[in-house]
Amino acid sequence: MDATLRTRWEQLRARVDDACRGAGRDPGEVTILPVSKTFGPERIREAVDLGLHRFGENKVQEIRDKATALATEEADPGIDWVMIGHLQTNKAGVVARLAAEVQSLDRLKLAVALDRHLRAESRVIDVLVQIKTSDEPSKYGLEPDRLLPFLDELSGYPTLRVRGLMTLAINASDPDSVRGCFRRLRELRDLAASHGHDLPRLSMGMSGDFPLAIAEGATEVRIGTALFGARSYPDSYYWPERS
Ligand SMILES: *Cc1c(COP(=O)(O)O)cnc(C)c1O
């Protein structure tokens, strides 16, 4: 057992709980999605030993490699892989086979491909619609004004259970603009509700900005660095548009 990982997990949970109380919310309303991208199967095994069983990844190849490595161990770790990164349509088959959930659904073409593969696998998965909440030129995500028609379109694909919305805030040091992105996602959730779409989950906030996301109603924060430590790849590897 890795004492450091346990300590980091406990400290992180305490910070999330504090942020909830600071916002007048019940800590039981906010879950933490550990983001294990770039960390290997040994590290994930340690996290499983701490009782964690859902892991966010943003590359299909990493899900495939880690799922394979961990499945060959004696005890089935029972991991739920959550896809949080940009997903190419031609990789939908792997995700339909291995992922428990996709939080980066941002276009109909991807929904169609996922649905086709999920039918073949006789599987149904939870999905969140990723929304572009900032004007950064090339960030992925659906344009906010497309949400209502997109939700109507998705109702034709019963293998996809639409459970909520996801966003990445603008990469800025100014807390007001970051918080504005989170607020926009919450308002979209409310707008969808007024049109009959129940979207209980809001996945927003990362290591550097989760208290603001919690203040705006996040039900899930996606945390990598604050739990697993610094990654050896720069973020530009994941977000080429930011390099
Ligand atoms: C990497 C990543 C995170 C976690 O980022 P940290 O700053 O390391 O907590 C959250 N969401 C997405 C989509 C990511 O790619």
Provide structural commentary.
The protein is of the alpha/beta class. The protein has one domain (5-225): Alanine racemase (TIM Barrel, Alpha-Beta Barrel), CATH 3.20.20. 41% of the residues lie in helices and 16% in strands. The protein has helices at residues 3-22, 41-49, 60-71, 92-98, 108-121, 147-154, 175-194, 210-215, 225-228; strands at residues 31-34, 54-57, 80-83, 99-105, 125-130, 160-166, 201-203, 220-223. The strands form 2 sheets. It has a 6-stranded parallel sheet. Strands 1-8 form a two-stranded parallel ribbon. Helix 4 (92-98) crosses helix 5. The longest helix has 20 residues, at 3-22. The protein is globular, with a radius of gyration of 17 Å. The mean pLDDT is 93.
Distance between the termini: 36 Å
Fraction of residues in helices? 40-55%
Largest sheet: 6 strands, parallel
Radius of gyration, taken over Cα atoms and rounded to an integer in Å = 17 Å
Question: Which structural class matches the secondary elements?
Answer: alpha/beta
The SSE string, one letter per element, is: HEHEHEHEHEHEHEHEH
CATH topology annotation = TIM Barrel
What value does the average pLDDT take? 93
Number of strands: 8
- Count of separate DSSP helical elements: 9
What is the number of domains? Answer: 1
Shape assignment: globular
* CATH architectural label: Alpha-Beta Barrel
- Quick one: CATH superfamily? Alanine racemase
Please give the order of strands in the largest beta sheet.
2-3-4-5-6-7
CATH class bucket? Alpha Beta
- Small molecules held by this entry: pyridoxal-5'-phosphate
